[in-house]
Write a structure and sequence with these properties.
Oligomer: heterodimer
Number of helices of chain A: 10
CATH class of chain B: Alpha Beta
Strand order of the largest sheet of chain A: 1-4-6-5-7-8-9-10
Strand content of chain B: 15-25%
Largest interface: A-B, 22 and 22 residues
Radius of gyration of chain A: 21 Å
Largest sheet of chain B: 7 strands, mixed
Distance between the termini of chain A: 31 Å
Distance between the termini of chain B: 31 Å
Number of domains of chain B: 1
Shape of chain A: globular
Helix content of chain A: 25-40%
Chain lengths: ~375, ~200
């Protein structure tokens, strides 16, 4: 972090932990009697609490979406490019709420939290939570913050699934849902990639069936592999080619199997760094939440039928080189909304970065995002 | 609002569900939403137009008629399907018209009349492809790849068993003039047709 903060930053922010005592019954049938959610907020809530925006995070995300935790921070929050004064989610107009979801590993109740039954960390005993469960816990959070109706619920990737679920679970509690680089359900290929990632973790000798805390270890190697495979699906062939090509770390082949190509050492570095900060049980849980998400399932696999239950307006955005959740997946969702006569706008943004494009500001992405959010702001007099 | 759009507005019943093919900056849909409580969508490919639609609250979907078609929309899912000044720019106008009447009970189409007397005069005098205010392109870079006349359009409707419910003409300033109604194929610059399937 430089000496001064950029003018379009929300500045130094402090997360807070909110405790909830009302039990939440999860899709799996289990109940959490109480839980914590770690939350950051940016901007201020207006008098009639109409200008609140909920940010939903993706697989490896958390509550720290924008700003810096201290002047020594090297990097801002994960969606700082889109949240701040003058940015698409303009904190001069909106009150922005960002949380770490249940089952996460950044402070909200999850596998690392103590299990009240044993006093030891839940580990693998933490229940599998679903997107629907997250939305229920986010509704409890909205109640706590005095927000009856979100101006918009916004998310990319797995976050977009939460925005979509909001429109179905609590149709009268949001005006807009912004579903970015997302999908109404995973394909077999998507699930297959998740399975490889989970297998990498569970087959690590240090995993100990998820009870690695008992053995004072973590399945670092498995997490690293899981992240490496995941990371490949976040980038595009073109962006990897552009960034690394076939570049070697040294001049010549060494006729061995260490990381010789730049792309290899990049993936290893990313994987290692991730394995130091992320929890393996959380990774399993998050990928399962992805696999299970399928709002059409309850409606005889008829997504349009599901969408008739929504009341809010939608913005759906996809990215041309996203092969994890392709534009075709977004169009499938848009078509269901059109058939259900929901108000939806859709754009496919031309960007070379694959799935990760939703985190990277490009002129058209920013234009569309700004235009839509400015209208939301006008609508709620923010 | 432009006269041609005002004419179209008169043909749309309050509360209609409308699809606007090539909706531009969403002017017409915005107006129909506010004045006629219409719902519906615009399809557009121009990024700036799409952004404008979003900022004014018009539901716009990025979709290319030529490459993506309209298969993603259900039969008879709209009351009216509109296409203003885009028929001449699509790859297969005949198929788009078929699709319009598959999706909607009624279609409203506007296009420039290539038999307008000034264009005829230009071609006769210069022996070259006409350029005008409504058609400001050269033959090699024009988006208007399927120009036709009123008579051509009506012949196509006849062949396809479309019924023409209304037709009117306006001039290049989108004004409705008595003389262009007198001899539309010669004096009309922009055609506005309201069509439906014959059996209706």
């Amino acid at each position: 972090m430089p000496d001064s903060l950029p003018p379009d930053s929300v500045g130094v922010v402090t997360p807070q932990t909110l405790h909830f005592d009302t039990p939440i019954t999860l899709a799996c049938g289990q109940t959490l009697d109480s839980y914590d959610l770690v939350v950051e907020t940016y901007g201020s809530l207006n008098a009639d609490a109409s200008n609140a925006i909920l940010i939903c995070h993706a697989l490896s995300g958390h509550h720290h979406a924008a700003g810096y935790h201290s002047m020594d921070d090297r990097k801002p929050g994960w969606w700082d490019s889109c949240i701040g004064p003058g940015k698409p989610i303009d904190t001069r107009r909106f009150f922005v709420v960002s949380l770490n979801n249940l089952g996460g590993c950044h402070g909200s109740t999850g596998p690392n939290s103590p299990n009240p039954a044993t006093g030891k960390p839940y580990g693998p005993d933490f229940p599998v939570v679903t997107v629907k469960d997250w939305v229920d816990s986010q509704a409890a959070l909205a109640d706590r913050l005095g927000i009856q109706c979100w101006a918009a619920v916004v998310g990319g990737s797995l976050g977009g699934m939460q925005a979509l679920q909001w429109s179905l679970s609590y149709p009268d509690r949001l005006r807009h849902a912004l579903i970015i680089a997302s999908t109404p359900r995973l394909t077999a290929q998507n699930i297959a990639f998740n399975e490889v990632a989970r297998n990498a973790i569970t087959s690590d000798q240090e995993f100990h069936d998820g009870r690695y805390h008992d053995f004072d270890t973590v399945p670092r190697r498995g997490l690293m592999l899981a992240r490496m495979i995941g990371h490949i699906t976040y980038l595009s062939d073109a962006s990897m080619g552009e960034k690394f090509g076939r570049e070697l770390r040294d001049q010549a082949y060494k006729f061995g199997y260490d990381a010789e190509f730049q792309v290899e050492s990049y993936l290893r570095y990313q994987g290692e760094r991730f394995s130091e900060t992320f929890d393996a049980n959380t990774y399993l849980l998050m990928t399962r939440a992805l696999d299970y998400f399928d709002p059409a399932y309850e409606y005889d696999n008829n997504l349009a039928e599901a969408m008739t239950h929504a009341r809010c307006e939608f913005l759906v955005l996809s990215f041309s080189t996203d092969w994890r959740f392709t534009p075709a997946r977004s169009e499938e969702l848009v078509n269901a909304m059109v058939a259900a006569r929901r108000k939806v706008s859709y754009a496919e943004i031309d960007a070379p970065w694959g799935h990760d494009a939703f985190l990277i500001p490009t002129p058209r992405y920013t234009d569309v995002f700004c235009a839509y959010m400015a209208r939301v702001a006008r609508e709620v007099n923010a | 609002m432009r006269t041609d759009l005002q004419i179209i507005e008169q043909w749309i019943k309050p509360g209609s569900h409308v699809l606007d093919l090539g909706c531009g900056d969403g002017t017409l849909l915005d107006h129909l939403q506010r004045e006629k409580q219409a719902s519906g969508f615009g399809l557009e490919i121009n990024p700036d137009h799409i952004t404008t639609c979003m900022s004014r609250g018009v539901a716009v979907i990025e979709q290319n008629l030529d490459t993506q078609g309209l298969q993603n929309f259900d039969d008879q899912s709209f009351d009216v399907v509109l296409m203003t000044q885009a028929l001449q720019a699509v790859r297969r106008p005949d198929k788009v018209l078929d699709e319009m009447l598959r999706l909607g009970r009624e279609g409203i189409v506007t296009f420039p009349n290539f038999a307008y007397w000034r264009l005829r005069w230009y071609l006769m005098r210069h022996g070259r492809m006409p350029e005008s205010e409504t058609l400001p392109y050269r033959w090699y870079n024009t988006p208007n790849i399927h120009l036709c006349t009123f008579k051509d359009f009506e012949a196509l409707c006849y062949r396809k068993n479309f019924r023409i419910k209304n037709r009117t003409v306006v001039d290049g300033d989108h004004q409705d003039r008595w003389f262009s109604r007198l001899w539309p194929n010669m004096l009309g610059q922009i055609a506005i047709y309201r069509i439906t399937r014959q059996e209706d």
